[in-house]
Amino acid sequence: MLDSTTGRPERAAALRCEGITKAFQGVHAVNGASFDVPEGQITALIGPNGAGKTTVVNILSGAMRCDSGRAFIGTTEITNRPSHTIARLGLLRTFQLSRELGGLTVLENMLVAPADQAGESFVNLLLRPGLIERQEREHAERALALLDTYGLYDHRDTRARELSGGQKKLLEIARAVMASPTILLLDEPMAGVNPALIELIGGYIVDLKEHGVTVLMIEHNLNVVEKICDYVIVLAEGRTLATGRLSELRENTDVVKAYLGEVIDAGASH
Ligand SMILES: Nc1ncnc2c1ncn2[C@@H]1O[C@H](COP(=O)(O)OP(=O)(O)OP(=O)(O)O)[C@@H](O)[C@H]1O
Ligand SMILES: [Mg+2]
Questions:
Q1: Entry pTM
Q2: For domain 13-100+179-268, is the CATH number 3.40.50.720?
C-alpha cells in the first residue's frame, strides 16, 4: 500500500497538509506538520497529549486559522477557508468533547446538521414551498434511517443532554454523516467509551470506509488503530514524526518504538 521508494501512500491524497504551523501566545502547538491522508482509507493521527492533533483537525476543518502552511482537499486549496466552505467540499468533523445541542431532541440535532437546506433561501421560501416540504421530509427520513443505523432510533425524542457519553459520541458521528461527507475527521471518537461500544463504533467507521468515505481519526487506543486503521501519522511536538502502517512503525524504527510506548501510556490516561 505504501510506495517503497517514497514511503508515501500509493493512493491519491484526499487531504494534504504542507508545513502547517500554529502558535498560541508564541508557543507552537503545530510546527510544520506535513502529511497526506490517503483516499478511501482509515488513517489514524496519533501522538502524546499536547502533540497538536486537535489543533491540526481544527485547522483542516476551518474551525481555526493557521499561521503558515497550506492545506488541500484533493487539489483544491482550503487553507484558512471557513468551515461551511470546507463542509461544502465534503469535509466534516466531530469534536473531542461532544457538541450536541443538549436542549434539542436527538432527531432535532440530526435535522440542524445538513448544509444547503433549501428552506434557508428566502426566494425558495416564497416561490417553492413544495420543494422545502419535500426536502424536509427527505431529511427527516434520512435522519431516522441514520439513527436506526447508529442504534439511537428509540432515543429520537430524548433530549440530547440526557444521552450517555457513548450515545453522545454516536450522535456526533451520525450528525456528521447526515451531511454525506467524503472526508470525515474524528477527534477521539472512542474516548471514555466502554469496550462493547468501542467495538461498535469501530464497525461503523469501517462501514463508512466501505461506502467510500476517507477517514482521519485521532486515537490513543493502539488496539483500535491496529484493528481498523490502514495508515498511521505520528505527530510529536507539532511535527510529523513518522507515517506508515502501525506494524511498520512498531518494527522499523527504534525511536518510534520508544515513542509508541509513550502513546500507549498516554492512552491509558484517557
Ligand atoms: N485555544 C488554545 N489556546 C491556547 N493554547 C492552546 C489552544 N488549543 C491548544 N492549545 C495548546 O496547544 C498544544 C496542542 O494542543 P492540542 O489540543 O492540539 O493537542 P492534542 O494532541 O489534541 O492533545 P490531546 O491528546 O490531549 O487531545 C497544547 O499545548 C495546548 O495546550
Ligand atoms: Mg486533542
A1: 0.88
A2: no
